Amino acid sequence: MNESATPNSSRTTGSQTLARGLAILRQVVDTHDGLSATEVAQRANVHRTVAYRILNTLCDAELLHRGEDNRYRGAAGLLSLAAAGHQHLRNCATSHLRSAADSLGVTVALLVREGNSAVSLAVVSPRAGTYHVAFTEGSQHPVTSGAAGLALLAAEPASAQDTDQVRLVRERGFAQTFGEVEPNMHGLAIPLPATGSGPTACLNVITLHEQSAIDCIEPLKLVAMHLLDDLNT
Question: What pLDDT score was predicted for residue 4?
């Protein structure tokens, strides 16, 4: 027997399995409402038993979870991976988010683009006041929706595929929307172009009152400038 054949074959098989699992993980988290096992099998071009085995492994690792509707979606384990991957950005942003949240009296979040999703990497609520809109770290929505999605697209280099809306956000330095992610909520976001090997990001506020969003524009632009300075030093 050729002794070298077995380990080489094993390494190849393992790489293929890992690549398939990662591809399925990305397919699931890039889909706004998750995927069923049948849909995963069809997209990955594998038998449904293979899809189930990979999905169960990803669930065991807390990277995916299976809902009561039998659809698979991203799980909390993805947040720790994202946080580790963007730790420098998160560390630099935290104190800026805290100062902005306390001074503006609104929840301020840092979002990054992951595939086709805008993902909240850090969320800081004000320590004073009795009422504010808040959301959880790790929450996500399509990058094509909301102020944060527009800001993330505008933070990328200009391209011929940019919409007029994205070009306007890049020109003004902020995105403002209403009711696109959360009904009856005003969204405001400031683009943060990528620095070094880091991702494109944005600062985001969601509020019930349009004036509150408008009042945040210039202060958050200043926060973004200071944060970019920190990231570049």
Answer: 42
CB atoms within 10 A of CB 45: 9
Which CATH number is associated with domain 80-231? 3.30.450.40
Tell me the per-residue pLDDT of 82-91, one tens digit each, with 9 for 90 and over. 666 577 888 8
CA distance 25 to 56: 11
Q: What is the residue extent of each domain of the chain?
A: 5-75, 80-231
Determine phi and psi for 76, rounding to 5 degrees: -60, -25
Q: Residue 58 — left, alpha, or beta (φ > 0 → left; ψ -120 to 50 → alpha)? A: alpha
Instruction: Write b or e for each residue in 73-97: b if 16 or more Cβ atoms lie within 10 A of its Cβ, otherwise e.
Output: bbbebbbeebbeebeebbebbeebb
DSSP type of residue 184:
T
pTM higher than the cut 0.90: no
- The helix (run of H) or strand (run of E) holding residue 38 is helix 37-44
Q: What is the pLDDT of residue 26?
A: 85
Asked if the domains 5-75 and 80-231 are classified in one and the same CATH topology, the answer is no
CATH architecture of 5-75: Orthogonal Bundle (1.10)
Q: Strand 117-124: give its sheet, edge to edge.
A: 140-142, 117-124, 108-114, 201-207, 186-192, 175-178
As given in the structure block, the two tokens for residue 184 are: 């009856």
Q: Which residues contact 150 (CB under 8 A, 6 or more apart)?
A: 165, 166, 169, 175, 177, 189
